[in-house]
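Follow-up to my earlier ticket, as requested here are the two runs.
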Amino acid sequence: MIPVVTPDEMRAIDAAAPEAVDELIRRAGAAVAREAIGMLGGTYGRVVNVVAGAGNNGADGRDAAQRLAARGVRVRVFDASDCPAELPAADLVIDAAYGTGYRARPDRPWRPPEIGAAAVLAVDVPSGIDALTGGAGSRVLRADRTVTFQALKPGLLLGRGATLAGEVIVADIGLGTDHIACHLVEESDVAQWWPRRAVDAHKWHAAVKVIAGSPAMPGAAELCTAAAARGGSGLVSLSAPGCRPRTRSEIVQHPIPAGGFCAEALSDIGRFAALVIGPGLGREDETLTATRECIGEASVPVVVDGDALFAASWSHEGAGPLFRDRELPTVLTPHDGEFGLLTGERPGDDRIAAVRAAVAEFDTTILLKGPTTIVASPGGQVLLVDRGDQRLATAGSGDVLAGLIGALLAAGIEPARAAAAGAWLHGAAADLGPERGLLAGDIIELIPLAIGALV
């Protein structure tokens, strides 16, 4: 996992370093120069413009400029506070104007210069990006590559920052980040966490119970159950209130009534290792009441998704007591709108802080969906997943994710890792599909290939 630190945390790490500031600047400058040479493809005849600010970010850029000049590169350095509107032609522009120190000020907006066809290497964070939230002003010098130091910054993964930073390189300059509780999940982490079936496993190993679907929305149950089966569950049983969806023939169906279904739905819960509840259940009053009862009474780990999130927030007392009273692991999987229903407010600019606050309120694991998925747990750990792209923004994709997470919970994976690994694999499976026209059902069929490709 790659550590992710806020600007305040990074300043504290810098302050705690035993090395002098000048030494850290030299290390950072060397890393910038190394990346610049790589982007230039050499040094002979190359021209580089450096835009350098007044702080440490600018100092890193000036150090890199000296190193490049010593290698024979023609270097021009421009002060960020007095930079011309258009820079002379160059092969590369090094953006060392503000980095993590940027704060938007209406009276002093950052106005990047015109740079022509030059490539851009940003130092730490592209200037004009809020390193905490990924928010950006109307004009940002889009980077082809960003070299950041010791740890990722949230603004490189969230909001517009994720689309403006280009390829992100994390350079080790010898600072300590062992105490950091926020990390970006990598493929090697998912490969380590993903469960392996024992040679003596049987069909009830990692069995998943799914309460999902309705006469109006049977497809959600079909997608969720198929994903749980493809994700490794040996047996998946579906209870769909008042209907019988057209699931795969391998899925066991346990019919339950459309009204107060809790007792019948949970009558065999002791045979299962996890429950997924919510996809496509509907929002009739009796359904909402029964859904809340199932969440509260389930004697196994639970994934709460879709209409079950609405049901949790439906009571006048809110969702807090329902989740806090549960003694077994619970994973909530809201998108921004559902997050607003649960907490009373959609996540703001600082999405990580918003999820952490909700976890503190509900004492449960929360996965907030988005281009970068955020998973936070009561222990304080935050896992970020940036695998996948806009192809996942399709109807039923969330039902697939819920089933995957249910399979991992049933296999005994710790809730935060189950949620993060499920989100990562979900994105990896979509990446194997076509660029256009990918459907949620296609993702399901690609899950075994994505699991098989784990290193």
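Run two:
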Amino acid sequence: MIVVSLFIIFRQAVRVEDALLRSVGMKRAHVYTPQRANDPLLDDGAPPPLVLQIYFDELPLLEKACAGPLLNINNGVAQAMTVRRFPVPNPGKPDCTYLVAYDGPAQDEHAWHAHYLAHHPPLMARLPGIRELEVYTRVDWIAPPSWQRANCMQRNKVAFDSAEALTAALHSPVRHEMRADFLSLPPFSDAVTHFAMATRVVSP
């Protein structure tokens, strides 16, 4: 069972070889690059040129990879997070992912997560054509001293067969229900970003 995920967000275009990802003891990796989709409610600007999401079975394996094969990837912003996967009606292997980041903090993060996890994933799971749904919360982890660390309160992703399928889902009535639930969340501050990303899966 996959329990932790390492996100590395790059602000400049870089190339990371699949062979490197396969050398780290991962369960699998997702390589995200910018893709266009239309959200009628939001426009958060240009997405990052590359995001890596590397799944591990347990936190010590993630930390070992950071201290070993991944050590020299020091031009990104990294964060380790717990993975919460939610069922969807028709799971599949998505080609387009909507990556969401809540920087936080909330006034009461326990209350914020409790509300979000109880109410928002059931709505997201009803998005037409959704293939994958995960929510991530931060964990304490050991990173190389040279790395820049992110500290997002929460990340999410919903994934679809294509950018067109994501756009259709974002224009569905469910999206407006999600917006209403978002506006009912307990108080929190700082940015929330939403980026459509082409998705490529790298297996061990």
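The only thing I checked on run two: The mean pLDDT is 95. Let me know what else you need.
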